Input
Amino acid sequence: MELLNHLHSILRWGILFILVVAILKARSSKIANIPFTDSNGIKKMALLGMMLLHIQLVIGIVQYVFGARGINAIKTLGMKEVMGDSVNRFYAVEHLTGMLIAIIIITIGYSTAKRMKDAAKSNGRIFITYLIGLIIIIASIPWSFRP
Output
């Protein structure tokens, strides 16, 4: 479980970097009216970000189900106790909920952008949905400065 925890933590930095690059590429491509294609890299970068998020989700679900801070905390302590403690609540409820919402927003954004015919709208969709997803992800990460 410790290995998965380290992998989950390290992968976050790659995801944050890829999402920022995808957001910047989408914004500049929207302004320049560059098509949302593989040839200019925006589509590949957006897809890579989404794929890494889904891999991260699988690792996180395994940790949630088999680790100490997810389902086991709820079983051991009870939901009332988990919700009463900010650290346990964060890991058992808030982190999972925030990340799921962000992944859903980014997945919908990518899926709809790849079907759009207008380059500016496709890039705009990636820009907005990935930016919203990134903000939610940043708010849902257990940073070391959090209590």
The CA atoms of residues 26 and 143 lie 27 Å apart.
